[in-house]
Design goal:
By secondary structure, the protein is α/β, with parallel strands linked by helices. The protein has 19 helices and twelve strands. It is elongated, with a radius of gyration of 34 Å.
Length: 570
């Protein structure tokens, strides 16, 4: 909710412009009934047709003014809702990336559901509020003022039924809110269940779990359907209440006004004026109230609450320190995924000076990628400090940290565009010669040539590229940037051993700091030092020393089957 309100506050000028045009839009609601009543009483009822026509022409002119105001409202609506949507997407993505409760490598289907569904709900609901609630406030106020001044004796016929309808509608709101929340959660759970099954389809088939997976998905879909039906019934009841509030005043007018006209206390024009105010302003306003409150306000409140629950708000990165040097120092660093979880990194001391080449090895899930997050500053240690050039890495100026440190994950992120667009992502000012030199250094020349050079197209998520080719472009992109601390987190897992060796040697030759989260133990043989993580105190040393001092490292090496080009000869 905080980010939502801040986003709206940032568009204060655009919101005020909407309100200003709303005043112009409300002019017809204020004058419509009076102008129609005057056309009857001073024109048609006394036989003066032209006078009646001129009052109707005035009514048409006023309606045109209101239409122009409404057009301006819709024209400027995007100035508010589009930046709001972009800001919420940024908030969700940042929250998912910084969520300490999960560090899975597969796509987060529920996060995708939050972005594609909840953010669009917030966007559409905000637009609805700015259109409907604004119109409800301006139009209804103008209509009631016009009715009270033009036909004060009939005002109670409208006000009492409307108040009764509003009271009943308010009594329905809690159940509507519960139903809307249940529907949102059912939608999200269905997306999560379906996404999990689709991502693990091969494992489901291989393990003979098709029936179980289908039952799980069907159960969530059925729950979603039941929530939708319950919400539909609640919405129908809401519609009945609002209809009573809108049509009962009209019935009362039909019953009460003939006698008042016959007694001479009302004119035909005043009765028609009341009908115009009721049918063109009050009734539509009540319908907009129902739509705004149930299908807009409730959806907005539930969506914002769900976003806040699922993705805790993460403050933007802060810090203004500038490192003095280029070394990385970890002192007593401890981190676990949760307050009471067993630490995956415990009491780690590590110093990496310029020119260092470190390989990190250990069983899967032991905390190697977590170490990468700590070094880059994406994860805060629960104890100890991580320093970049003598400054706490999370307090370094964000732009400086992004310039100095580069992480290449196992997942490859390529974008629709040209090869040049992808390679120059972190260095938009790099020339073609620099980009081609980076491509050559990591052994990706053949890939770029096959694509048609730097102007060759790259499709969505890599298009027709193999997983290894995509990884080569990803590491070339980082090689082209000025980062002097590079972390390869199994970034060459889809390359053959010879190609992997070319990539690691290329980064090691840059005279910066290279940290390799090893996918193959051949990376440990190329590194100057090796960090072994096995759940206990981390061990640091050369290959030879660790073979003698670390049973875990020795067992890993013994179990590893050497392949051809284990250590490619130069």
């Amino acid at each position: 909710m905080g980010s939502y309100l801040r986003a709206l506050a940032g568009r204060r000028r655009a919101v005020l412009a909407l309100l200003a045009w709303s005043v112009l839009e409300g002019v017809p609601a204020l004058l419509s009934g009076r102008l129609v009543g005057l056309a009857v009483d001073r024109g048609f009822a006394v036989g003066d047709v032209w006078t009646g026509v001129w009052w109707l022409v005035a009514f048409a002119a006023v309606a045109m003014i209101g239409a122009f105001g409404l057009r301006q409202v819709f024209t400027r609506l995007g100035d508010v809702v589009e930046p709001l949507r972009d800001g919420l997407v940024t908030t969700i993505v940042r929250g998912v990336l910084h969520d300490g409760r999960s560090h899975r490598r597969q796509p987060d289907a529920s996060a995708v559901a939050r972005i594609t569904r909840h953010v669009e709900v917030v966007r559409d609901a905000t637009a609805g509020l700015l259109v409907q609630a604004r119109a409800l406030l301006v139009t209804t106020t103008a209509a009631l003022v016009g009715l009270a001044t033009a036909v004060s004796s009939l005002a109670w016929l409208v006000i009492l039924p409307v108040v009764a309808a509003l009271v009943l509608f308010g009594a329905l709101l809690p159940s509507l809110a519960r139903g809307q929340r249940a529907l949102v959660l059912a939608d999200e759970d269905a997306a999560e269940a379906t996404g999990t099954v689709l991502l693990g389809m091969r494992d489901v088939v291989a393990c003979g779990g098709r029936d179980r997976a289908a039952e799980d998905v069907a159960r969530q879909v059925d729950r979603q359907a039941r929530a939708t039906v319950r919400m539909a019934w609640a919405s129908a009841l809401r519609g009945v209440v609002i209809s009573v509030g809108g049509f009962l005043p009209l019935v009362l007018l039909l019953v009460m006004t003939p006698g008042m006209v016959a007694a001479g206390t009302l004119t035909a024009g005043e009765v028609l004026a009341a009908v115009v105010y009721l049918s063109t302003s009050v009734q539509p306003a009540l319908r907009r109230l129902a739509d705004t409150t149930s299908t807009v306000v409730l959806r907005l409140a539930v969506a914002l609450r769900r976003i806040a629950e699922a993705v805790p708000e993460v403050p933007p990165p802060a810090g203004d320190l500038v490192p003095d040097g280029g070394g990385i120092v970890l002192r007593g660093v401890t981190f676990g995924w949760g307050e009471h979880a067993e630490p995956v990194v415990r009491d780690l001391d590590l110093e990496l000076a310029r020119g260092a080449h470190l390989a990190v090895v250990g069983p899967s899930g032991i905390g190697k990628s977590t170490l990468a997050g700590l070094v880059t500053g994406m994860v805060a240690p629960q104890a100890g400090t991580v320093l970049l050039g003598g400054a706490p890495v999370r307090e370094v100026r964000p732009a400086e940290r992004h310039r100095r440190i580069a992480l290449v994950p196992q997942e490859t992120y390529l974008f629709t565009g040209t090869v040049r667009d992808n390679l120059a992502l972190f260095t938009p000012g790099a020339g073609d010669d620099e980009l081609l030199a980076a491509v050559a250094a990591v052994g990706a020349t053949d890939v770029v040539t096959r694509l048609g050079g730097l102007d060759g197209p790259v499709g969505h998520a890599g298009g027709s590229l193999s997983a290894g080719e995509a990884q080569l472009l990803a590491v070339a992109r980082v090689y082209a940037c000025p980062a002097d601390v590079v972390i390869l987190d199994e970034a060459t897992s889809n390359l053959d051993p010879a190609a992997e060796a070319v990539v690691e040697r290329a980064f090691a030759a840059r005279d910066g700091i290279l940290v390799v989260i090893a996918h193959r133990l051949s990376s440990a043989l190329r590194a100057g030092r090796v960090l072994v993580m096995d759940g206990g105190p981390p061990l640091l040393g050369s290959h030879e020393r660790l073979m003698a001092d670390s049973p875990t490292y020795a067992e890993l090496m013994a179990a590893w089957q050497p392949v051809e080009a284990l250590v490619p000869q130069e």
